[in-house]
Design a protein that fits this description.
The complex is a heterotrimer. By secondary structure, chain A is α+β, with helices and mostly antiparallel strands. Chain A folds into two domains: about 5-175 and about 325-335, Rossmann fold (3-Layer(aba) Sandwich), CATH 3.40.50; about 180-315, Tumour Suppressor Smad4 (Sandwich), CATH 2.60.200. Chain A is built from nine helices and 18 strands. In chain A, the strands form four sheets. Chain A has a seven-stranded antiparallel β-sheet with strand order 12-13-11-10-9-15-16. Chain A starts with a strand and ends in a 23-residue tail after the last helix. By secondary structure, chain B is of the alpha/beta class. Chain B has helices spanning about 5-10, 10-35, 50-60, 75-80, 85-90, 125-140, 160-170, 190, 200-205, 215-230, 260-270, 270-285, 290-310, 315-320; strands at about 65-70, 145-150, 175-180, 185, 185-190, 210-215, 240-245. In chain B, α2 (about 10-35) runs antiparallel to α3 and α2 (about 10-35) runs antiparallel to α12. Chain B starts with a helix and ends in an 8-residue tail after the last helix. By secondary structure, chain C is α/β, with parallel strands linked by helices. Helix content of chain C is about 35%, strand content about 20%. Chain C has eleven helices and 14 strands. Chain C has a seven-stranded mixed β-sheet with strand order 3-2-4-5-7-6-12, sandwiched between helices. The chains are: A alpha+beta, B alpha/beta, C alpha/beta. Chains in contact: A-B, B-C. At the B-C interface, α6 and α7 of B face α3 and α4 of C.
Chain lengths: ~350, ~325, ~325
């Protein structure tokens, strides 16, 4: 095994959209995102990852990490925590759009990263997921209104990412393939990790969806009862877990036979009418009923469609491989991977896992 | 229909009106750019071309109860708030028929009767004034709001920061619109704004801060409509940061050697008028012929404004001493 | 019916009567009520020296405390004035003008002119000025000449309780921006003040003492200093005419010139610094317009060209006193070509 490489990409623009205004969405400071990355660097080095690739941005995150690195390398700091060698992926134009995330992730994959960590919301995870290929993804949430990324402390996430990247914990045992929704309008397609909603708005505009009255149909790859966001509508009526091999879809109608209070957004608990709930099988295309409007992927309007275009949504089973952080660290406990005292015997290994290395 | 749907649904007339307004600003500025180069326009002009979606996206949500304050780059806000284009052009030429009778010039065009508190020659001069008009609206319970437009340069000025604090402390119906076009004169905003995003400062004052693509009329319109509705309903101030670029220099005559190639890319790929037109034609909300008709109308309007301005009389000696006071 | 009240009470009465008469009059400033957000008493101060006390409870919602952000709230007062209110904002010490001067001299002062006569800005900015309380350099300046210099502003300095009430009422009713200067050492001064409401016009000086020998032109607290000197001089046979300008912008040139035409001798007493002051302004006016009438060079009695010192002995030397005024009068009175 060569040097284990981990890629980290963070979205500087997440958490500044209209949801700050129309819901009680949190404000996640840039400084905290940079701080999370630094916590991960410490954890990664501690478990043997010595090379990290970092995306660059104009929003101050990579600049803050660079400043921290320079302070870290200053003479006289011997004996402080060790950090991996960090390589900033610059040299390509920064467009301040989702394309920056795609480009960064692709470069990390090409460079041999064994795990990609992304910091952001559902939108960031969605975009990163589209570019990771078979490389495991660890999505960390920065803020509210996120269903897909985990709200998890960056240090333990870093330990997990490092243990998988070095192979100390075999990836196949602690990663699971996420489901994926594919929304298609003619030749244009977008993928979603959680939900696709059909919106009667004509324009993408400020992207976020927060008014259920504008929605006519909902497709969910999974719908957890404790979710926040559009999938909460079905999460209370017809829950589907991330592990179930199917999804769920329904029509939204204020006069529908099912009426539910849903946590549509932070501080936003609204009554939603639902009809025609049915499971979504992976594979077949489900037609979109509306004549014209916008398809919202993971809560953000993205794909406009006009009369005659006939959009469709499919559930796919080939989403990104996602790192299960608790499973990694549980395996690490069983294998004694973080133990450092050679004189005490390791706890007996589980019959399912290998002997610990010396 | 919910409130949000109502606010967001733009009728054919509203869409046409928005296009006409943006086109009028664009043609006005392009024409001033051309005429300034001949040397006939006195003083300084600071052109708004490229930023039309911001002024029109915000002001299309306002009515006669509402006030706006602008910057030295004020022509766009003036037109968007309904100031007469002919009078504006005459003012820029320093004529007696101008909005300010030739006594203000490009940087001081105002029309109090339309709630336009003026373009302002002082960076950061506007926000405190808007705290005042918003206060008046609150005390008189008109439901009106005040919108303070300022740039990335103005976002660093003490007056702007004080005004944001005051507006939050007094819970005023005020909207702060930071038009971040990337440069304060020749200095990049990524350098001069320490927090990188102006919107990030809002949290420090306890109000929501939202970033909007300033080239996208629909995104601006939606964000502004929510902020204005919140203010009208007593929910307090909001900070909206537009991210875009200006097509011309800081002032006419600026060689702009500090810039990269962002203008060419913006004109080609991001232009607010092109995107608006393409979008409404695609949805069928408007026809290309509707838009062409507006373009032709606006061309005539601007031509007339320039011709009239050039032919108008200059103010004379008697005008020098008038209107210092209401009564001295 | 007049009765004796203090300068402070006269100002308070003016504000109260105008706020009763016109609901568009609002008051704002730092601690104009006091106690905002604090667990104790509301209207705890009523202004740092008590001028606005009582208004908060009497006119709910119309007395606004502000954070310490002069450029924001002075600007807000100006903006509100353009939107149909009649705000009376307080710039606590005129020494603080530096942080909000733009809003006053570039915005309020220029709206009417710059906008071709289409703006009306009826704002009053009350401010404390003057030395004598050992408040030191940054809390004791005069600075009214700086505002007098600006076209578009009006500048008012009442010297007596009677003038304070009448000029404040006029200031509130006036449709132009007014800077209203209150000398901090005059708040406890008592004098006769009518109970009813009355407005004194701007640009009309008051001849507070008639005399044919020497004209003293003065303003604000120096009116009392000049009267004290005039009393001493009268004992020595020199009769002074003391003119209280009341407003420096507009300036009552006629009263000044008429008096000098009669006496031929002028002393200007101005608590400001000597350069570019009211003293130099009036001296130039008289030198130009009444040159022929002058029988002696003009004398100016001002503070020195220094910041205001702290220590009492120094501050007392800084402030022009009756003795210095009397000396100046004697100089011009005794002057022979």
């Amino acid at each position: 095994m060569g040097d284990a490489i981990v890629g980290i990409v963070a979205n500087p623009l997440s958490g500044r959209d209209i949801r700050r205004l129309v819901t009680q969405a949190s404000v996640f400071p840039t400084a905290e995102k940079a701080n999370m990355i630094q916590r991960m660097l410490t954890a990664l080095d501690a478990v043997g990852v010595h090379r990290v690739l970092l995306g660059t941005d104009l929003g101050g995150i990579s600049a803050a990490v660079l400043r921290a690195l320079e302070r870290h390398r200053a003479p006289g700091r011997a004996g402080q925590v060790r950090w991996p060698e960090v390589e900033f992926l610059d040299g390509q134009p920064i467009r301040q759009t989702a394309q920056d995330t795609v480009d960064a992730v692709r470069r990390m994959v090409t460079a041999g990263a064994r795990v990609i960590v992304c910091l952001g919301g559902d939108g960031t995870a969605r975009v990163a997921a589209g570019a990771v290929g078979e490389v495991p993804l660890l999505a960390l949430s920065t803020g509210t209104n996120n269903v897909f990324p985990a709200v998890r402390e960056a240090t333990t996430a870093g330990l997990a990412a490092g243990l998988v990247a070095t192979g100390a914990v075999p990836a196949r045992e602690v990663t699971a393939r996420a489901k994926l929704l594919e929304a298609r309008v003619g030749g244009r397609a977008e993928t979603a990790l959680v939900d696709v909603a059909v919106c009667t708005e004509r324009h993408v505009a400020s992207r976020a969806v927060w008014d259920p009255a504008t929605l006519t149909q909902l497709f969910c790859a999974f719908a957890e009862p404790d979710a926040i966001g559009l999938s909460a509508v079905l999460g209370q009526l017809s829950p589907v877990s991330r592990d179930d091999p199917y999804g769920v879809t329904a029509r939204l109608d204020g006069d529908g036979p099912h009426q539910v209070l849903a946590a549509i957004g932070p501080g936003l608990v609204l009554p939603v009418g639902v009809r025609d709930i049915e499971p979504m099988r992976p594979g077949p295309a489900y037609q979109v009923d509306a004549r014209a409007g916008v398809l919202a992927v993971d809560g953000e309007r993205e794909l406009t469609f006009e009369p005659g275009e006939r959009p469709a949504v499919r559930l796919r089973a080939d989403g990104p491989w996602c790192v299960d952080v608790p499973a990694v660290l549980a395996a690490s406990a069983r294998l004694g991977l973080l133990r450092r005292d050679p004189r005490r015997p390791a706890s007996p290994p589980s019959r399912d896992l290998q002997e610990p290395t010396a | 229909m919910t409130d949000t749907m109502q606010r967001r649904t733009l009728t054919r007339d509203q869409l046409l009106g928005a296009y006409r307004m943006m086109r009028a600003i664009r043609e006005f500025e392009e024409r001033v750019h051309a005429e300034f180069a001949t040397g006939e326009i006195p003083g300084f002009v600071h052109l708004y071309a490229g930023e039309e979606a911001s002024a029109v996206g915000v002001c299309s949500n306002l009515d006669e109860r509402d006030t706006i304050a602008s910057t030295h780059r004020g022509h766009g806000h003036c037109i968007a708030k309904g100031v007469d284009v002919g009078e504006m052009m005459a003012e820029i030429y320093g004529r007696k028929t101008g909005s300010c009778r030739g006594k203000g010039g490009s940087m001081h065009i105002a029309d109090m009767s339309k709630g336009m508190l003026g373009a302002n020659g002082i960076v950061g001069g506007g926000p405190p004034l808007i705290c005042g008009t918003a206060l008046a609206a609150k005390i008189k319970a008109t439901g009106g709001v005040g919108v303070a437009f300022f740039g990335d340069g103005g976002s660093n000025q003490g007056t702007t920061l004080e005004s944001m604090n005051l507006a939050c402390v007094w819970n005023l119906p005020a909207i702060f619109v930071a038009e971040n076009n990337g440069y304060a004169e020749s200095t990049a905003s990524t350098w001069s704004v320490a927090s990188d995003n102006i919107a990030d400062r809002a949290a420090g004052f306890g109000m929501p801060g939202v970033i909007v693509d300033g080239f996208d009329f629909f995104a601006v319109h939606e964000a502004a409509s929510e902020a204005i509705a919140r203010a009208r309903g007593g929910g307090g101030p909001t900070l909206i940061e537009m991210k875009f670029t200006r097509y011309f220099g800081h002032f006419e005559g600026d060689q702009q050697t500090y810039r990269g190639d962002e203008v060419a890319r913006a004109r080609a790929e991001l232009d607010c008028l092109k995107r608006f037109a393409d979008r409404v034609v695609q949805t069928g909300e408007l026809a290309r012929s509707d838009l062409d008709a507006v373009d032709a109308e606006v061309a005539v309007l601007i031509d007339k404004a320039v011709d009239d301005a050039k032919a108008a009389p200059l103010p004379g000696g008697a005008d020098l001493l008038t209107d210092v006071y209401v009564r001295y | 019916m007049a009765r004796t009240i203090t300068y402070r009470e006269a100002l308070s009465e003016a504000l109260t009567q105008e706020m009763e008469r016109d609901e568009s009059v609002i008051v704002m400033g730092e601690d104009n009520a006091g106690g905002e957000g604090a667990p104790g008493e509301h209207d705890a101060w009523g202004g740092v020296l008590g001028v606005t006390k009582g208004l908060y409870h009497r006119f709910p919602g119309r007395v606004l405390d502000t954070p310490i952000s002069e450029s924001a709230f002075i600007g807000a007062a100006i903006g509100a004035a353009t939107a149909g209110m009649r705000p009376v904002a307080e710039l606590m010490f005129v020494d603080f003008m530096g942080v909000c001067f733009d809003q006053i001299y570039n915005q309020a002062a220029k709206f009417r002119y710059m906008f071709g006569g289409k703006a009306v800005t009826p704002v009053v900015i009350r401010t404390m000025y003057g030395a004598g309380l050992r408040a030191a350099a940054q809390h004791s300046q005069c600075l009214y000449p700086l505002f007098t210099h600006i076209p578009g502003l009006k500048v008012v300095l009442p010297a007596t309780p009677y003038d304070a009430k009448g000029l404040m009422i006029q200031a509130i009713r006036d449709n132009d921006p007014v800077l209203f200067f209150e000398h901090k050492a005059l708040y406890d001064l008592s004098g006769p003040v009518p109970e009813e409401s009355y407005a004194l016009p701007f640009g009309e000086a008051s001849v507070v003492r008639e005399g044919g020998d020497v004209t003293i032109v003065t303003m604000g607290r120096m009116v009392h200093t000049s009267l004290e000197a005039a009393g001493q001089l009268a004992a020595g046979g020199v009769q002074c005419e003391v003119i209280d300008l009341r407003t420096t912008s507009p300036l009552d040139e006629d009263t000044i010139l008429e008096s000098v035409e009669g006496t031929g001798r002028l002393v200007v007493v101005d608590e400001s610094h000597p350069r570019c002051s009211m003293a130099t302004d009036i001296a130039a006016l008289v030198a130009r317009r009444a040159f022929g009438a002058l029988r002696a060079p003009i004398e100016m009695v001002t503070a020195p060209h220094t910041p205001v010192p702290f220590s009492g002995t120094l501050e007392d030397l800084y402030i022009p006193d009756a003795q210095r005024v009397a000396n100046a009068v004697k100089t011009v009175a005794e002057y022979e070509r």
